[in-house]
Design a protein that fits this description.
The complex is a heterodimer of chains A (about 260) and B (about 425).
Chain A lengths: L1 E7 L4 E8 L4 E5 L9 H7 L3 E5 L18 H15 L4 E6 L1 H12 L4 E7 L19 H8 L6 H6 L6 H19 L10 H4 L7 E6 L9 H6 L6 E5 L5 H4 L1 H13 L1
Chain B lengths: L1 E5 L11 H4 L9 H4 L2 H20 L4 E4 L13 H11 L6 E4 L11 H14 L3 E4 L5 H7 L4 H20 L4 E4 L4 E5 L13 E5 L3 H9 L3 E5 L8 H13 L9 E9 L3 H19 L15 H9 L13 H6 L3 E4 L1 H16 L3 E5 L7 H19 L35
Parallel strand pairs in B: 1-2, 1-11, 2-3, 3-4, 4-7, 7-8, 8-9, 9-10, 9-11
Antiparallel strand pairs in B: 5-6
Classes of the chains: A alpha/beta (about 260), B alpha/beta (about 425).
């Protein structure tokens, strides 16, 4: 795996990018809980050159860079600059949760950047009758129960930094909280920031992947995307909001096959 | 020393099983199940009457505050209450202490500057301008302000407010969060260059840094008493010293719950259930809501994670005697209350501007008046001269009231006892 930090936004925003694999470019945008290179990304890296940037503010030693961005428009422009800096003209764009919303916004703002678009339980819409749970207000136990089908699974413990070492636990807690704050900045208090006005601009073939037992963003939200993106396909899978961590190989295969088509 | 009566305007009749049945007293308590508008009208009028009674009994100031969607305190507009108080204390040497209108939830924030200027005009220059950051529950959860922008918005709004009061010329404000082409406040406050500013906080390090930097009075609004505030307030005084400011006790305010009776035993009989109501029901809020991600800056987040504040005991496990013993509430005979306030609060924390909460939780109107009356007669006079021997000037009190002490009106002449 290679690791590099790219400066964008007049040098004020530093974004670390983890990359692995070979083949056509795929860019993965992580969710509100920070980037961890996981087996799902390994699965994609079997066929693609996967670039996984960290959202502004979540890169180690650059927590305050996020203060240079005022809103979603600034964030989308940052990612356009990042792709240019990576030498990526167009790519398969993949995103999970908040990152799915970012990938979709990027594909709407710059249709030519998105060769194909794979969204895993993306945010971006709001239905009064099927509310997205505000994960930023849940305590750690509630959060695990909302994210994972099995909150006691190894994947759940790993993601939430459950460790016997108090110093490592404190560091994990800081990273986790700050990741939620830095991403939450762009979606508080409701994750509808106008994607419905822009999503018609998406031209890339699109796949939506949703865990059948997603207790954070109910699977009905797949309809909001599917009915607005012509030809979009919805694939439900076993698992919760982080099905790609619970079933990395199965979900990875679905996404890889779609991106390879 | 200046002593003010503080009020939260709580729901006084929440059901006995409130904290078991409902998620929270704040943000989500269901109005239609828990409240009745006519009865709430009675609470507002009791609140005003109690504060006016305190004013007439010789308190130096009366304090209101702002909360939203909160059953323990629902003055969403403290300035409506302050306006009544300003008018009704006309001719009295009592300060109207607004603790206060919250800048980040007022848009544009010059609305606060305007209303405070109105209050200063109506009161004849008796306003203390509290400029709180606002709690995460109020600002982030109820009013939708992004946690990461909360402090930045506050700092910008604070600078705008101070400039709007003082500027001699009409000016444009091209801020990050607020843009105004012609700031030209009507009216301006009587007090020059501006009314005294208090910044209330609940112990956040960055807030008392801010208070010292801007030379305002930092007020620790605590519900857990002076003992648990000692370290925090020492931290504040350390910052005061590091920044080369004088250790003037009037640059510190503190809120203390107080219940006075004829004897210690009578205090328990009269107040125990109201004190327990306050701590068991009124502070029933999910812990995560106090610090949504991004509300604390990164530096504070790391500091908190490295040195977690030893988790205070859960107030729900405590009873009246624990609250009194631990100093959450100072309760008892006048002598007990006098001594503990002097030693534990005023001297230990070095507080010049003391606020006391005398209507606690479910405490009914009549009993509240008794508490106010006993405090005013038996406790307040002996506190008033504290700090006089050190000769400090209370720069954070309306100038025309600094040297005077309100003369008490005899009991019974004050607020109606309806």
């Amino acid at each position: 795996m290679t690791e590099r930090t790219v400066s964008v936004w007049q040098g004020k925003v530093r974004i670390r990018v983890l990359s692995r694999g070979s083949g056509p470019a795929v860019v993965f945008f992580h969710g509100p809980w920070g980037l961890t290179w996981d087996p799902f990304l390994d699965e994609l890296a079997r066929t693609f050159t996967v670039h996984a940037p960290e959202h502004p503010g979540t890169t180690p030693d650059a927590p305050d860079d996020v203060y240079h961005l005022d809103g979603l428009w600034d964030l989308v422009l940052c990612y356009d600059e990042l792709l240019t800096a990576l030498g990526v003209e167009s790519a398969g764009l993949v995103g999970h949760s908040f990152g799915g919303m970012v990938a979709c916004e990027l594909a709407a703002a710059y249709p030519a950047r998105a060769r194909r678009l794979a969204l895993l339980a993306p945010l971006g819409f709001w239905r009064d009758a099927d509310r997205v749970v505000n994960w930023m207000l849940l305590d750690p136990a509630q959060l695990r129960a909302h994210l994972f089908r099995d909150p006691e699974s190894e994947a759940a413990r790993r993601m939430l930094g459950v460790t016997p070492d108090p110093q490592a636990a404190a560091e994990a807690r800081v990273r986790f909280m700050w990741s939620m704050g830095a991403t939450g900045k762009f979606i508080w208090p409701l994750p509808d920031k106008g994607l419905k006005k822009r999503i018609h601009r998406v031209t890339a073939p699109t796949l939506l992947v949703w865990g059948k037992e997603d207790r954070l963003v109910p699977p009905v939200y797949a309809d909001e995307f599917a009915r607005r993106i012509p030809g979009a396909r919805v694939q439900t899978v076993d698992g919760g909001h982080v099905a790609h961590l619970e079933q990395p190989e199965a979900v990875g295969r679905v996404v890889r096959d779609f991106l390879s088509a | 020393m200046k002593i003010s009566a503080f009020h939260l305007m709580p729901h006084r009749e929440l059901p006995d099983d409130f904290e078991k049945r409902y998620e929270s007293v704040w943000v989500t308590p269901p109005w239609w199940e828990l409240a009745d508008a006519s009865r709430v009208g009675q609470y507002y009028n009791w609140t005003l009457d109690e504060l006016l009674y305190a004013a007439r009994r010789g308190f130096d100031g009366v304090c209101t505050n702002e909360h939203h969607q909160n059953a323990y305190g629902f003055m969403p507009s403290p300035n409506l209450m302050g306006s009544v108080l300003a008018r009704a204390t006309s001719g009295m040497d009592v300060a109207v202490v607004q603790m206060g209108a919250t800048l980040p939830t007022s848009n544009p924030p010059i609305r606060v500057a305007e209303e405070y200027a109105m209050l200063d005009c109506i009161s004849g220059g008796r306003l203390v301008a509290g400029l709180p950051l606002g709690s995460p529950m109020d600002v982030n959860l109820c009013y939708g302000i992004t946690p990461m922008e909360h402090r930045e918005r506050y700092r910008e709004a604070f600078a705008l407010t101070l400039k709007a009061w003082q500027a001699r010329e009409i000016f444009p404000w091209n801020g990050r969060y607020y843009q105004l082409a012609n700031v030209n406040l009507w009216p301006r406050p009587i007090q020059q260059p501006h009314p005294p500013v208090w910044v209330p906080g609940s112990g956040s390090i960055s807030t008392f840094d801010f208070a010292v930097e801007h030379d305002v009075c930092y007020c620790f609004l605590s519900y857990s008493g002076a003992r648990s505030a000692t370290t925090m307030m020492q931290g504040y005084w350390n910052v005061v010293a590091e920044r080369g400011r004088e250790p003037n006790p009037y640059r510190a305010g503190f809120l203390q719950l107080v219940a006075v009776a004829e004897t210690d035993a009578r205090a328990e009989e009269k107040y125990a259930r109201h004190v327990e109501y306050f701590y068991h029901k009124c502070l029933h809020v999910p812990g995560m809501w106090y610090a949504p991600p991004g509300n604390q800056d990164y530096r504070s987040l790391v500091a908190t994670a490295k040195n977690p504040v030893r988790r205070a005991e859960n107030p729900k496990d405590l009873r009246y005697r624990d609250f009194v013993e631990k100093g959450y509430v100072i309760a008892g005979s006048p002598a007990t209350v006098r001594d503990r306030l002097k030693e534990e609060v005023v001297k230990a924390l070095r507080v010049g501007n003391l606020m006391v909460l005398l209507q606690i939780g479910s405490m009914p109107h009549e009993l509240t008046l008794e508490n106010i009356d006993l405090f005013a007669r038996e406790v307040l006079p002996s506190l008033r001269s504290m700090w006089d021997d050190e000769g400090w000037v209370n720069h954070w009190w309306p100038e025309r009231l600094r040297k005077t002490s309100p003369a008490p009106v005899p009991a019974g002449v004050g607020a109606s006892r309806a």
